[in-house]
Every structure is written in structure tokens, then in C-alpha cells.
What does this fold into?
Amino acid sequence: MKTVKIRNLVIGGGKPKVCVPMMGDEEAVLRTAEGIKKSRADLAEWRIDTDPDWNNESHILQTAEKLRSVLGDMPLLFTFRTREEGGSAAVSEERYRELNRTMIRSGLIDLVDVEFFKTEETVKSLIREAEAHGVRTVLSNHDFEKTPQEEEIVRRLCAMQEAGADLAKIAVMPKEEQDVIELLNATWTMKKFHPDTPVITMSMGQRGMISRLCGELYGSAVTFAAYEKASAPGQMQVEEVREIIEKLHV
It folds into this structure.
């Protein structure tokens, strides 16, 4: 699988990297950042949609500067997860572009999450903006209702690759055990036949928890774990995830 280097972190080879979300207002995310920095996490995700003051750009930039100071060389992923894909806030397409564009241009983030089912104009413009400013793009899709069939998961991930994603991500909700197998098979298919872009896949909830731990075998390059508060169903604590991954690796 092709690898992507962000600061000193290489994504796409060996053990899956552990990303920990930071949620809430400035005080909460800075407190979490301090904990993440001391943990065995590889990178941090800032879920700005969970900040009550997310629509205040000066506040966001000030918080970003403080986060950058705390995290140092740890890569920072900026994410506005919309309500349509399980996030905490609703936002217009235009405002979504503006917020992400502001952060891409700030020089304070390393990766930006772009929801793949936004308009083609939004996706392409943000990818171009990110490329111009040296920010890596994670194209993502989240389905909290169901798990598409393997072929559809592969189709979406390949479409993300073709659109220019640096990393392609999909998270789905299983209704039965077979759904977890569909997700894992799709991940392996990407690893085997479409290795041009590292992929991030997960089956959510307790039923899908195994998908967060076996990325090295099936091909998911990053797993998400909680420090204090989980950002999605089925997230385990960061130290638990790291310990299990290390044992599986040995």
C-alpha cells in the first residue's frame, strides 16, 4: 500500500496509527490535547463541530494556535462533521467550504477531513486548496444507519482515490455480524487491488469493534480511539487500543 508521510508520521505501512478525537469547547479540547500528547496516540483529530463557538473564525484560529503549541510535532486533523454524517452541527455548503478553507490556509493543521458526498465543487475546491498549502486531505463517508455491500464500499473508496484523496475513509454501522465481514472484505480488497491510497475503514458499535483493531491484517491504516469522550459508537480508550495492537503485531 502507498504510504503518506505527515510530519514524522508515516501512514499506510505496518501497524495502524491511532488517532484520538478532541471534542467540546476550547477548554475541553486543550485539556484533551494535553492528555493525548502524553498518551501513545499517533495523531489527534479536532472535531470543531462540537465546539459551541464553531462559527467564530477568530476563536477557531486562536484555539488552533493553542492546540498547535500543545501538540508540537504530532499531526493534527481538522474535522467539521456535519449533522448529515453524524456530527453535532448543521452548516450550509458555502459555510462548510469557508471554514475548511480558513483552516487549510492557516498553516496550523496537517490534515483536513472533507465529506465525500458534499457537492463536486466543494470537494474539488477543497482538495485543490489543501494541495496548494501542503495539507493532506481525508475524503470521508459515514453511514450510521447501515453497512453497504462490499462492492459498494469498494466503489466509494475507489471514487475517493480517483477524486484525489490522500487518505480515503469510510465508517459504517453493522446490523448483523455479516456486515462486519463485508467491511473487512472491502478493506482487504482495497489493500490487495487498489493500494494507491491508504484507506481508513471501521465498522461502528460493539459488534464492529474488531474492525478497529485488525487494520494491519486487512489494510485499514488508521484507527480511532478515545481519550476521554468517544466521538463514535464502539471507540475504545487509546491505551487499550495501543496495547491490543502491539500484542497483535508481535
